[in-house]
Amino acid sequence: MAFAYSDMLTVIKDRQWALVDIDWDAPGADLITAEQRPRLAAFMADLVWIEHVGARGFAALTKRAPEGPLKEIYRYFHAEEQKHANAELALMRRWDMLDGDAMPVPNKNIRLVIELLDRLGDDLTLPVLGTVIPSLECALDGALVKFLLDEVRDPICHEVFRHINSDESRHLAVGFQVLEQLGAGPMRRIAIETAGYALRPSLMLGALLYTPLLSRMSANIMAMGLDEQKLWNAVQRYEKAGERSPSIRRIPLFHVVRLHGRATINRLEPFQTINDALNRAIDRFPIRVLGRPPSWSEALTFDPVAK
Fold it and tell me: For residue 13, is it within any domain?
């Protein structure tokens, strides 16, 4: 049966939820242990900002998508990623992990990706964004959510991530369908598109920032106790989309992203040596030269507003 974006848009509208739907004062916050708290606070801060990176990616896709249901879907996905970040902030507030009303500070890897997206995101093409974003959602969102549901006993955390998981399943369904469409055209068109984005400096710069981010986040997740096989299963979800679809397998960038995820999670050489060198360089980068985070990141709020 053909995929109908109009039907998916109807489902997305019907499945909307808001922070006010959740009882943030319900029992269970005290189930976070003293041992969990420091690492969980850092973990949640990273997760909040990764959601915002996803939101910025969908904002760029909204500008690239053709008029019609797909463009409207991406508008909803943009808002949903922002809502996920706000819900995770609300969990941090529930767990007393925020310093008053101050927002958590993104780590340097994420801060640089935010800056890149702010400056160059709208220049990235639909084939690039449509290929990379599903990989990011599989590898990072999937693994991070699994870790939280395994490690945190607070029932409100589980309620929040049931909503987030439901949203993400639709993000991936649309993402894989777009991938199929990108790979279904004539090979000549695919080759021209590939040559067009491969020559853009923004793609190389993005790879130099995204690659060490995925490496560092995967290492951090495993250091916190996530089973390596679960992380690998999250990455394989992206690979399996290509195994099921001959059209997706025709996209050269899909294979680059797939092999990149495999090499990162399995820490293959010489890829890991390059990632480690990039992360050492990022650790020394004077982040203050970037100034304040972009204004769109100020939409973060832990207040349970009905949006």
Answer: no
Angle between helix axes 201-223 and 142-151 (nearest 10 degrees) is 20
- Domain of residue 60: give its range: 33-296
Q: How far apart are CA 215 and CA 139, in angstroms?
A: 11
- Is residue 10 situated within a structural domain? no
Q: What is the pTM of this model?
A: 0.89
Render pLDDT for 260-293 as a digit per residue (tens, 0 to 9): 888 877 788 888 898 889 889 888 888 777 777 7
8 Å CB contact between 229 and 157: no
Q: How far apart are CA 115 and CA 103, in angstroms?
A: 17
- For residue 27, is it within any domain? no
Q: Which ranges of 65-200 would DSSP assign to H, the alpha helix? A: 69-94, 108-120, 126-136, 142-151, 155-183, 187-198
Going by C-alpha positions, the residue among 204, 213, 198, 211 that lies closest to residue 251 is 198
Whether 23 is covered by a domain: the verdict is no
**Could you read off the pLDDT of 166-189 as tens digits, one per residue?**
999 999 999 999 999 988 878 888
Q: For residues 238 and 232, is the Cβ–Cβ distance under 8 A?
A: no
| Overall domain count for the chain | 1
Supply the CATH number for residue 259's domain.
1.20.1260
Tokens of 176: 């894989």
